[in-house]
Amino acid sequence: MQADAVILQDITIIFALSTSLVLVFHRFKLPPVVGFLLAGIIAGPHGLALVKSSHEVEILAEIGVVLLLFTIGVEFSFEQLLKIKRLVLLGGVLQVGLTAVLSTVAAHLLFGLELEPSIFLGLIAALSSTVIVIKSLQDKGLVDTPHGRASLGILIFQDLAIVPMILLVPALAGAGRGLLETVAIPIFKGAAIVALVVVSARVLVPKILFSVVRIRSREAFILTVILIGLSIALLTSGAGLSLALGAFLAGLIISESEYGHQTLGNVVPFRDVFSSFFFVSVGMLVNLGFLVEHIGMVLVVTVAIVVLKGSIASIAILVLGYPLRSAVSTGLALTQIGEFSFILAQLGLGSGLLNHETYQVILGVAIFTMAATPFLIDAGIGLGNWLHRRDWVPLRLKAGQIEAKSAPQLNDHLLVIGYGFTGQSLVRAAEAVDIPYLVIDMNPETTKQLVKAGKPALFGDAANKEILDHTGARKARVAVVAINDAAATRRIVEVLRQFSPSIYIMARTPYVTEMSPLAELGANMVIPQEFETSVEIFSRVLNQYLVPRDRILALAAEQRNEGYKLFRDAPMPKAGAVSNGGARRLTLPVELPDTEILTLTVAPGCALEGRTLGEIELRQEYGVSVLALIRERKAIPNPESATRLRSGDRTVIMGRHSSIARAAHLWKESPSPIG
Fold first, then answer.
1. Where exactly are the structural domains of the chain?
2. How far apart, in whole angstroms, are the C-alpha atoms of residue 198 and residue 443?
3. pTM for the full model?
4. How confident is the model over 549-600, as pLDDT tens digits?
5. Cα(580)–Cα(586) distance, rounded to whole angstroms?
């Protein structure tokens, strides 16, 4: 068989094995990377020896490494980094630094290795898998949770730390050479390359890409981007540095231009294909016989790595002021040996820092820890919740940094739990109509900025009764749970209902399926994003077809009438009838089915202006009753039929959802709930 046909046959075998194993692993919720590694083990020389062109596969793997670091550079954004700078810098330094130091000490003292190989093993152990962790968090919908953001911040630092680690390999390998040759020269070369990157990012590359974009050729754009990446990679390689470092710097150059997102979209498919060859090539290096023979040692090291990395990452997050639950979840998410550890390990093997036996142990530990990652993430959440419920765990560990003095003395206020987009919108609305509010958020940077801006905010976990006590939750009228963590939302609703039986709880959730569980836990109203999005979409579509506005409102009301039927038909909560001081608080969505109270403002020139309530006949024509009138900050309860409406009057009305939707056009404004 001809040489090119052999290579094609080997690639076909790799693709067939990889695809089959990834599909099987997906059913067991295992990451695809483990499938690629296993494909390499099976097809490699220590397995069934199906692949003959191992050298060519290694070349494809090198391209995968270049593209992997190139896309990391493109995805790197100084603006995004600044938003989580404390997590990236302090959290990342603590996690990487402590893990590297303790692993170095363990390798040097327990295993008797020389100092340089011990340091190198410490660097390898410090890195986790960005690909596997982020993918697992995305699959579980946990990226926007506190521990999801904490994991992302530390992973960003690790991705950046790989660059100086690569630079450090020649210095560690050449300990017998002079300091100038091992340290000073690589640093000087690195500084020169960085200077070139800065000039290119600001001047040269934007002009080149602009010239290419002007001709509107997708092929030319892709080729130019790849040319820039390979050129910078070859430049760093020629300067005695690594191809991977050059690829990262090339990506960083392009990320500073306005073409970063377009570049990423075009390069990612190539990266995914070639990076799979990298993992397959690593798997081909695994000696299955060695792994089976030394399985006991590999498992012991695996457990030690999981415990060590999990503990150190948890401590780093605790130092940043996050609660124990988030710290434990973050720690167990970052316990694996990452893909960049493979890159370092290969460099160490080639430079003599590692022998083949140690390299095989690293590969075995990496495979086991990667495969365990999705399960460890679930275990971290479960363990964190279990610790959170234990009475013997100190409050400061449960709730983070509590600052009771930052919570003002409020009454009849609004609790905003979570300061994301929904929380920010709620705060703006509350400020516009002078509703007192208090924000509770798990991000210490967010609450610090809010307090600095003079806004009432408290850092802490709203699932803690002690935190709720600081917020005056028993005196609050409404609490809105607006966080992205479904499990945390359920806990907060449950604890909040137990703590304050009378408070009106609204919860936001991504999914309709969460409505019933949250209602059972005590939520008065659950707003599912996918449901409200569907209502908004069909409303805008009908508007494009010139369907009358009142008809659109009526259809939307019918949809919501059906969607929120759960809350209208729900029985009265056992503890929900008594409010502060023993007075009964009416909760209409529970007690009066299909009925709501709204406030509408009489707009200038609308159908109601200048007419009396008797002339309008709202009750007879639409089935809507006017309960009160608010005029010039004075309330007029039960207004008489002779009362004439003026522009600016706020009318408090009650009726069925469909009735109010039909009557809303009289005010020329969309109805807005008052509670």
1. 3-387, 402-568, 594-673
2. 33
3. 0.65
4. 777 877 877 777 777 666 655 544 443 333 333 333 344 444 455 677 888 8
5. 13
